[in-house]
Structures are given as C-alpha cells and as structure tokens.
Design goal:
By secondary structure, this protein is mainly alpha-helical. It is 58% helix and 4% strand. A two-stranded antiparallel ribbon has the order 1-2. β3 and β4 form a beta hairpin. The longest helix is centred in the C-terminal third of the chain and has 25 residues. The radius of gyration is 23 Å and the shape is elongated. It starts with a strand and ends with a helix. InterPro entries: AbiJ_NTD4 (IPR049503), DUF7014 (IPR054280). This is Abortive infection protein-like C-terminal domain-containing protein.
C-alpha cells in the first residue's frame, strides 16, 4: 500500500492517481486550503493555558494589515467569520486567520499565499524546529499533490515550474546561499523569486543578476583576491599587468576576470560566465511589456524570459559556490 507524509493513501486515490504535468500558480483550490487548515490544527502543539497560537496568529494578522495598508483585518475579511468555526476551540485571531485561509476569493490567491508563507515563518519563531519542519513538509506535500507550483524553503515561498530544475538547481542554490556569508546574495535571489511571483519580471531579472554578482564578490572576498579590471582583448597592451580595481566598484566583467585570473579555468568556462552575465543584463534591459500595449494580460514571453534568467542565475551560482566558494 502506498504511503505519503500523511499516511496510507485511500483506495480512491490509488484507483485514480492524479499526475499534475503542469503546475498551477494563480489559484489555491478549496481542497488544498482545507488540507492546509487541518495540518496546522494537527501539527501545532495545543495546551489549554497556552496563548502561543493566539499571539502568533495575532502577529500574523497585524503584519498582513500593515503590508496591505488597511486599518485592521476586518478590511480583509468581507463576511462574518465566526459562523464558520462554531464549536471550535479557537481564539479570535485564529478564527480570523483561518477564515482568510479558507474563504478568501479565488482572485485573492496572493493573499492566501502570503498567509501561508507568514504562518510558516512565524511557526519557526514561536515553535521548535521539529514543529516548523513538519509543518513545512506538510505544506509542500499538499502543494505537490494538488499541482500547486510553489514550495516553502527556509520559510520563504518559492515558485517552481519544473520539478527537475527546481529540485536539482533552485533548491540547492538557495540552500548553499543560506550560509551566513552569502546572506546578501541569498536575499537578492529570494527577492527575484518574490518579484516573479508578483509578476514584476524585469525586477526579477535584475535581482537574479545582482545575486550572481554578489556571489562572485563574496567568493573573491573570501579568497582575498585583488579585484582586476577587465580590459577587452583588442585593447590590451602586451606584457603589461592587468589594472586593479575596488571590489565595491567592480562590475560583472571585472569579477569574472578576477575569478579566471586567480584560478585555473578553461576558456569555455570564462566565456560561459561572461555570456551568462551579458544575457542577464540584456534581458533586464528589455522593455517590460506587462501593462504596455497588452492590457492586463501577462505575456508568455515575459514569463519564459524571467524563468530562464532566474534558473540561469541559480545554475551559475550553484556552480560557483560548489566549485570556488
């Protein structure tokens, strides 16, 4: 009998297994929301006199109202919430948060995703690591089984469009960047994913490029290499030493030049890194077509460009950190 994180599969699930070949990004089904609600109820420790859950959910609601720019959570909850939880031993903040989770409209899918991410993040603060890891595993399993194209990694919701790319490139790169010395690059790559989720494709490409450059700077600084100014081959003078530059002022071409002159690299590796940097900068300079001549419809080309940029950056970051970091 097949088992997953939640236990043995039902007969109906074994009889009609569902395979999601394409992920969904702009809706969270009622079934998935209800499953998330049940897992929160099951996995959060409960004690009669414990106010931990109440305080946590109130903080989540406070943060949501601040970020969404409303006076209080009632502006986010359109109908009475208390009828839904009659007989349930829940505090008022829990009822309000769970109502948002279960009853927000399909068009408010970003609110639902924000709430799920905030719950994950706050559980890691209010509860121990085991509770946090179990809840994140449950969330990710629910996403996977319902064909929802997101995964929670280190308390952050990440978009994934391809299981192999996500598991072999995106996830490992974020895990490597979670080391304290890579905090800046990690923040920029996470911001790229956040921008992608919100449809800010140009910003996503720019932040992916920043994460790549930050990774190079951190590696150069860790190895105590003197940054070298890149001079095109046609302008180089024979038998002269390459000019130096400051790390803060170094651009991608300088960083790649510094890397390749301090280690033994094949020419194709240098060309590949330089090409990747040029590609990201070219993509970022393209006009953001969303809202310009195409109404509110997101161009499929914009999405594909953005995915390509983020995955390319993540691939090269993974290579750099594994090899030289």
């Amino acid at each position: 009998m097949n088992e997953d994180f939640f236990g043995p599969e039902l007969f109906s699930e074994r009889l009609n297994p569902i395979v999601h070949e394409v992920y969904v990004y702009d809706q969270i089904s009622e079934k998935a929301r209800m499953q998330i609600y049940h897992q929160i109820q099951r996995l959060l420790p409960r004690d009669f006199f414990d106010t931990k859950a109440m305080n946590m959910f109130q903080e989540i609601l406070n943060y949501l109202t601040f970020r969404y720019g409303v006076i209080n959570e009632s502006k986010l909850i359109s109908t009475p919430y208390y009828d839904l939880f009659k007989g349930e031993a829940l505090t008022e903040p829990e009822k309000k948060a769970f109502f948002l989770l279960l009853r927000s409209s399909k068009s408010d899918f970003l609110l639902t995703l924000d709430l799920i991410e905030l719950i994950s993040r706050h559980v890691s603060i209010f509860y121990d690591e085991t509770v946090s890891e179990n809840l994140n595993t449950a969330f990710n399993e629910i996403f996977r089984k319902n064909g929802i194209g997101y995964e929670i990694i280190n308390g952050t919701l990440i978009s994934k469009d391809n299981e192999v790319v996500h598991s072999e490139i995106v996830k490992p790169s974020l895990q490597y960047l979670s080391q304290p010395e890579y905090a800046g690059a990690n923040e920029e790559l996470l911001q790229a994913f956040s921008d992608f989720k919100e449809g800010q494709f140009k910003n996503a490409i720019i932040n992916a490029n920043k994460a790549f450059e930050s990774t190079l700077k951190i590696i150069i600084e860790k190895n105590e290499w003197q940054p070298i100014k890149f001079i095109p081959r046609a302008k180089r003078k024979p038998n002269t030493e390459s000019p130096k530059t400051e790390l803060e002022k170094a651009v991608a071409s300088d960083l790649i030049e510094t890397l390749t002159q301090n280690i033994k690299t094949e020419s194709f590796q240098r060309n590949a890194l330089m090409g990747m940097s040029n590609t990201l900068q070219s993509l970022a300079s393209l006009r953001n077509t969303v809202g310009h001549g195409q109404g509110a419809v997101v161009s499929e080309v914009d999405i594909r460009r953005c995915e390509f940029a983020i995955h390319t950056a993540a691939t090269n970051i993974l290579f750099l950190v594994r090899t030289y970091g």
